[in-house]
Amino acid sequence: MVFSERTLPKFDTQSVQITKEEGLLLYEDMVLGRLFEDKCAEMYYRGKMFGFVHLYNGQEAVSTGVIKSMRPDRDYVSSTYRDHVHALSAGVPPKEVMAELFGKETGCSKGRGGSMHMFSEPHKLLGGYAFVAEGIPVATGAALQSKYRREVMGDENADQVTACFFGDGASNNGQFFECLNMAALWKLPILYVVENNKWAIGMAHDRATSQPEIFKKASVFNMVGVEVDGMDVLAVRAVAQEAVARARAGEGPTLIEALTYRFRGHSLADPDELRSAEEKELWQARDPITQFSKTLLERNLVTSEELKEIDQKVQQQVNESVTFAEESPEPDPSELHRYIFAED
Ligand SMILES: Cc1ncc(C[n+]2csc(CCOP(=O)(O)OP(=O)(O)O)c2C)c(N)n1
Ligand SMILES: [Mg+2]
Fold first, then answer.
1. Which residue has the CA at smallest separation from atom 8 of ligand 1?
2. I want to staple 57 with a disulfide (CB 3.0 to 4.6 A). Which of 68, 166, 263, 338 is the partner?
3. Closest CA to 158 of 166, 148, 167
């Protein structure tokens, strides 16, 4: 079956003013996501990590554009099983993410979680979740507690916004509808970010969904719904900044549908034979990192040497994360029962 490509929403990237510092921050975060995932693939095929590993290549502009519009270590982020790069954007050090993938005690979830269960209290990362849509109620709860603490308990500092990431497939699950209803009803400070990469494993979104334009589903809850080119980091950032401001001002949630694509198979165990070569090539040509480096160069904000230096610095950081993970101890078997329940 052949599916047509959706027309991308119009966005005037030229109209967005950014400083060199902001541009480099966005660029570095996306490159970190890309090089980290490439290294994961290498380590997985070398037998260094086990279980399912889902990579984020191609979708970097969504994680970077949204999370870099939020306050680090204060606002909440919830993810899915495709969670390494959300963790990195949220500020979890690459060595802690890599060590988690290696199942080591020094991992951000103490080696108990692995690829699909990144968690970090200091970085307000509420977790990766193996079940599709499982993070949506958790993120909705986080947003409810911020609002409750602020408005009912009078805690002025409880002004956190939550970003809840999930896939197109998850938007057909019941939690999505129940949580959007509650969030709109209670005007919760939350961004529901659907990363519509057109596929749920081997199921094409258009084939499984009566209304494939997910952002339109916001309207039935009286919620703001927007679609955005998920391969354009400045477009994602602009939409996210507006949504964060709306949430922070007590005006409630936003459903953001980012049109994006994963450049690799569903997981590293997927031979990726179902998607057509044409479709893959079309999206590969929209690579968010290549596009953004062009923008930075065209605006004379950076030189190609500066970008290369960042690439090298990040590559070194990623390599060091592997050394750290390899040299780290495994959890002590006598302590395997720990971290199931909160400790005093
Ligand atoms: C509740 C539940 N049902 C089924 C699965 C098996 N499963 C794992 S990933 C996936 C596809 C989800 O696709 P999508 O939400 O679009 O996210 P993407 O993988 O594209 O990022 C499915 C069905 C699961 N993990 N959890
Ligand atoms: Mg998907």
1. 132
2. 263
3. 148
With a 6 Å cutoff on the Cβ, whether 169 touches ligand 1 is yes
Residue 343's pLDDT is 82
DSSP annotation of 329 reads P
pLDDT tens-digit series, residues 200-249: 999 999 999 999 999 999 999 999 999 999 999 999 999 999 999 999 99
- The CB of 200 under 6 Å from ligand 1? The reply is yes
3-class secondary-structure state, position 284? helix
Please identify, by atom number, the ligand 1 atom nearest to the C-alpha of residue 80: 21
Domains, the chain, with CATH or none: 39-325 (3.40.50.970)
CA of 203 to the centre of ligand 2 (A): 9
Distance of CA 25 to the CA centre of its chain: 16
Q: In terms of pTM, does the model score above 0.90?
A: yes
Alpha-carbon span 44 to 28, nearest angstrom: 24
The finding on whether 84 has its CB within 6 A of some atom of ligand 1 is no
